Amino acid sequence: MTANSSSPVFTTQFDASNQEFVATGVFRPRSIADIADELLLLRDKIETVQGVFYVNLKRVTHMNSTAFRALARVLVDASRSRPELKIVVVASSVVTWATQMFRHLSELSPNISMEIYDSAFYPGQTFVENQSFIPILRTQTKMTWRHEREILPRHGLRNGMVIADICCGIGDFVMLVRREFNPARIVALDHSAASLDYARSVAEEFCVRDIEYTYGDASQMLFEGDQFDFVTCRHSLQIFDRPELLLRELYRICKPGGRVYITNEKNSHCLGEPRADSIQWTYNEVARLFRYFDMDVEMGPKSSRLLLDTGFEDVRIESFMVTNLDGDPQEFADVIQAWEDVYAGEMSVRRGDSPEFIERFRQGFKDHIFAALHPRGYAGWPIWAASGQKPL
Ligand SMILES: C[S@@+](CC[C@H](N)C(=O)[O-])C[C@H]1O[C@@H](n2cnc3c(N)ncnc32)[C@H](O)[C@@H]1O
């Protein structure tokens, strides 16, 4: 069924291994007859399962009342004729109407429930979506931009392109790209409401109205495929526990012939002089701490493999070192301080580390700051920038 020529097609399918009925697209039939086949599939498949039956609406962007009533009828009837069966409707916080519409079904039938899959969907979410992550993002982009403004053209970024920055955080990067590369259109998506609020308020303050900030899950984006010339995803594949899902989505929304650009770190290679040993110890522990929360901050050198495995061609990779010599050393010291506050002050505490461990962990950051500010010192943070082309 097609809603109209410019809307995404509505599709349904049944995934037997997950006992899941998956619907996607715009669900706006003029009458029940228009969706007879979809309803029949749903009715038939409910009959085939035992235990739990999932109705996945994560990617249904619109639904009219005809569709809702028809779907609800089938689910309520099934729950009454098979009281032993549990029916779980899975929706996303991105599609707010679905939550409101389907929540009421559990009042009609106690064996129907609603699940918002992205309220807690990856282990690092509570840290990175939190307001306390904002100082990290603010200080980091300031330091990396000096390098990336020169690196980006080597990866294919040109003036006038249609660009998406996925997992945009507080939007500093899109602001800088907008100013430097004058895009035809620029979209920025993130799942942190706090970061997006911050991004929108900065844009408003600077009277910037042409950045399209979007709340969404990068692993289940509602954007149509094949539409962006250049897609960026910085420091985020390493945060999400299933980076291959994000990469598949970055690939999908990129135009054939367009490029996807990613940056990732290798935290255990952060370094400094003097006090190298203490610094080294702490950053090895940073990598272990993130691994504990299913995040891989050692991902940088794996970028080529990840891009090739996703199907990209003409993969380009380079690394750069942010250092205290890049500009005002205090700016790098601010980055390190922001890391200490969140990594030692929040994440290590959440893991249940002892006060002795946390003290030693903090000391490495303090020593890194000492090295950064020392007149004869050196402090570094290595980053890998990589990109691949989606085949034509
Ligand atoms: C380390 S921050 C990097 C932010 C920004 N790219 C930067 O470099 O400043 C990681 C960001 O990824 C976002 N993120 C992680 N997984 C996501 C997902 N599945 N969907 C949308 N955003 C996600 C987080 O909310 C966070 O803002």
From TrEMBL:
EC number in record: 2.1.1.163
GO molecular-function terms, A-Z: demethylmenaquinone methyltransferase activity
Start and end residues of each Methyltransferase domain: 163-258
Record-linked InterPro entries: Methyltransf_25, SAM-dependent_MTases_sf
Pfam families the UniProt entry points to: Methyltransf_25
Keyword Ligase among UniProt keywords: no
Coiled coil: none
Keywords, comma-separated and alphabetical: Methyltransferase, Transferase, Ubiquinone
Keyword Transmembrane helix in annotation: no
Catalytic class of the enzyme: transferase
Gene3D superfamilies: Vaccinia Virus protein VP39
Protein name, per record: Demethylmenaquinone methyltransferase
Organism: Rhizobium tibeticum
The encoding gene: ubiE_3
